[in-house]
Design a protein that fits this description.
Elements lengths: L4 E8 L1 H4 L7 H11 L2 E9 L3 H14 L2 E5 L10 H9 L3 E3 L1 H13 L6 H4 L3 E3 L3 E3 L8 E6 L2 E6 L3 H20 L3 E9 L4 H7 L1 H5 L6 E7 L2 E10 L2 H19 L3 E4 L4 H11 L4 E5 L5 H7 L8 E6 L3 H6 L5 H7 L4 H15 L3 E7 L14 E7 L4 E7 L4 H21 L1
Parallel strand pairs: 1-2, 1-3, 3-8, 13-14, 13-15
Antiparallel strand pairs: 4-5, 6-7, 7-8, 9-11, 9-12, 10-11, 15-16, 16-17
Helix pairs in contact: 2-7, 3-4, 11-16
């Protein structure tokens, strides 16, 4: 078996440390490097200061075989990555004619004047292997130094991803002869991590080497990630599938999908496959459930619309909730949420209606109905079901959890 190859990812830029942009590069790089058998041992962020970058590079050299840097490759004075790499490697900047031709063509095609700063994009450390950037002017660079590989990439995510996917990852696989790492994700909903762990404890204890299990909790559910390493791709898939087959009978009720499946994707496929349409009535979630549904491309095939009935007047006038129901039981009640689900189904002419009504917080609760008291419902032509949720004190979490639970209720009804 090939030895483990270790990598460190370093993101460069004051804007990352100041929180002015969200660093999505490291998460994406972690996934992609892991998929080719390279293990991330550290992720670091550093500002636009040469001393800080040099310190990180010296530290990374001690613990990693691959050091990947993103950012600081623009044409302005605050972009100092190339000059700092020259200092680190003890070399000078040298103009790369291939890079210059590409930068020149980039500006000519857009009818824009090229300045000396733009021409400077073609100046690379003398020991760099130039990696062509098809989507921008900042070059990628590959260095081999003292038994390590250093890669410098633009910080712009779509440029970085294109370079990494098409040029760097294949080059890393060839350079290091990396092993195959395979993952299988089992997506569960409606069960907590500790309850899930107890239920599958015997199966987990019996997992053969080298298969490893990780629990990845998320809103309303847990992802079970199985990982194995080897040299035979087909055999690894077979081994993972065997373990999924063994654990599935223990947790089948809570499994909604695998790998990249999201709950809204699964619900959408069920609705489309059964040629059913959906309408949504939302109160406490304020349109969040509808936004989850419409994240899925092609959702117009089954999603007809929603009514955000934040006021009781809208519940009565648009959804047909009985005023007597609101007066006797209140907006946050089983009786009201049932009528909301049935009402939106009738108002929009859909096969299925789902509804949410509750107290998301942080205020508005009472002794009888504290913050986090939420009712959800699903209505079909067969029946209407409702469920009480008792959630916490945090508004955003309550909204997201309610969305997860009502979509899972819909999934369960569609399967039934």
């Amino acid at each position: 078996m090939t030895n483990t190859i270790r990598a460190e990812v370093v993101t460069i830029g004051d804007e990352i440390l100041f929180g002015q942009i969200t660093d999505t590069n490291t998460a994406w790089l972690g996934t992609e490097l892991t998929n080719i058998g390279i293990r991330i041992v550290r992720k670091s962020s550093v500002g636009d200061q040469a001393d800080a970058i040099l310190q990180i590079l010296h530290e990374a050299h001690q613990r990693a075989d691959v050091i990947i840097l993103t950012g600081g490759l623009g044409p302005t004075k605050d972009d100092i990555t190339k000059k700092t790499l020259c200092t680190y490697f003890g070399v000078d900047l040298v103009r790369n004619e291939t890079a210059l031709a590409l930068v020149t063509s980039f500006f000519e095609k857009r009818g824009r004047e090229m300045t000396d700063l733009n021409r400077g994009q073609a100046d690379l450390p003398a020991n760099a292997t130039y990696i062509q950037n098809d989507w921008g002017t900042a070059p990628g660079m590959w260095f081999e130094h003292d038994g390590r590989v250093y890669v410098s990439l633009p910080g712009v995510p779509f440029e970085m991803k294109h370079l990494m996917s098409n040029r760097i990852l294949p080059k890393l696989r060839e350079h290091f002869k990396t092993p195959i790492i395979k993952h299988k994700m089992i997506r569960t909903v409606g069960i907590g991590e500790s309850f899930l762990a107890e239920r599958i404890e015997a199966w987990e204890d019996a997992l053969p080497e080298p298969i490893k299990l990780a629990y990845l909790p998320s809103f309303g559910g847990v992802k079970l990630r199985l990982t194995t390493t080897g040299d035979n791709d087909a055999l690894l898939d077979q081994q993972l599938d065997e373990q999924v087959g063994k654990v599935l009978p223990l947790i089948e009720k809570n499994v909604f999908g695998y790998d990249d499946d999201e709950l809204e994707d699964v619900v959408g496929r069920l609705l489309k496959g059964k040629q059913l349409t959906l309408g949504i009535a939302e109160s406490c979630t304020g349109g969040y459930v509808s936004s989850q549904i419409t994240k899925v491309p092609g959702s117009s095939a089954y999603f007809w619309g929603s009514i955000v009935s934040y006021s009781n007047a809208v519940k009565v006038n648009q959804l047909g909730v009985e005023p007597a129901t609101l007066e006797q039981f209140g907006a946050v009640s089983e009786e009201t949420v049932r009528q909301m689900a049935e009402g939106v189904r009738k108002a929009l002419g859909t096969n299925v209606g789902i509804a949410t009504s509750g107290i998301a917080g942080p205020d508005g609760g009472t002794p009888d109905k504290p913050v986090g008291t939420i009712w959800i419902a699903c209505a079909t032509d067969q029946r209407t079901v409702a469920r009480l949720l008792r959630l916490g004190q945090y508004r955003d979490q309550n909204i997201q959890l309610t969305s997860t639970y009502v979509l899972n209720m819909l999934r369960e009804e569609l399967l039934n």
